[in-house]
């Protein structure tokens, strides 16, 4: 599944922060979006994930429009999974249940074995029964990555997924995201300041002042 952003513009008041951005996210590729703070990275990611309606432009998920008459098409948005900087874990659920919750709420049989494998891959197997408030910032970040990957979504959007991680764990997270793209033919977009694991990206795109370089 692919995601295509065309002529994306967005502004706050009279200030335009994204200036006609075109970006293709092909299936089977991890694309890294690199740029300084304030360059528009997070705004673009939010638009790609259906969290922020653009002022102008279109987003298509596998040729289906994400925004229809200014509103998010929930079916198209359902093909995406989002890793937020703040992790967005559900506070009253354990780490394990944060992975299983989508299956539980949709009536699908939870795949506990897969969840255990993912938590092991992010070095959190021993903390599966803990709550987000009992984790460090880096642990919450790793749990959020595991939760996104558990969904097996064909489009993964990750906002600074290695920001709170040391070099070894940051690289391990990037390896998991790259494997998801390559093994499941998914489109993965990672917004980052971190240049340590860019060799794992299939394409590196730089953004500055709301324009792609």
TrEMBL record:
Keyword match Nucleotide-binding: yes
Keyword ATP-binding listed: yes
Any Pfam family hit: ABC_tran
Domain ABC transporter: from-to ranges: 3-212
Keywords for this protein: ATP-binding, Nucleotide-binding
Gene Ontology MF terms: ATP binding
Classification via InterPro entries: AAA+_ATPase, ABC_transporter-like_ATP-bd, ABC_transporter-like_CS, ABC_transpr_LolD-like, P-loop_NTPase
PANTHER family: IMPORT ATP-BINDING PROTEIN, TRANSPORTER, PUTATIVE-RELATED
Name this polypeptide is given: ABC transporter ATP-binding protein
Phylogenetic classification of the source organism: Bacteria, Bacillati, Actinomycetota, Actinomycetes, Pseudonocardiales
């Amino acid at each position: 599944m692919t995601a295509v952003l065309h002529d994306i513009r967005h502004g706050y008041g009279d200030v335009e922060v994204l200036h006609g951005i075109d970006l293709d996210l092909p299936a089977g590729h991890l694309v890294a979006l690199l740029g300084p703070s304030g360059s528009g990275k997070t705004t673009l990611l939010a638009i790609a994930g259906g969290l922020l309606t653009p002022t102008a432009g279109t987003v298509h998920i596998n040729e289906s429009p994400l925004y229809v008459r200014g509103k998010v098409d929930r079916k198209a948005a359902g093909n995406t999974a989002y890793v937020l900087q703040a992790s967005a874990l559900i506070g009253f659920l354990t780490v394990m249940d944060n992975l299983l919750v989508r299956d539980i709420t949709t009536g699908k049989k939870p795949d506990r074995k897969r969840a255990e494998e993912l938590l092991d891959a992010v070095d959190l197997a021993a903390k599966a029964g803990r709550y987000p408030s009992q984790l460090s910032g880096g642990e919450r970040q790793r749990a959020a990555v595991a939760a996104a990957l558990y969904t097996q979504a064909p489009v993964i959007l990750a906002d600074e997924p290695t920001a709170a991680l040391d070099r070894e764990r940051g690289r391990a997270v990037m390896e998991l995201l790259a494997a998801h793209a390559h093994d499941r033919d998914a489109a993965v977009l990672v917004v980052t300041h971190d240049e340590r694991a860019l060799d794992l990206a299939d394409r590196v795109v730089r953004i500055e002042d709301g324009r792609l370089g």
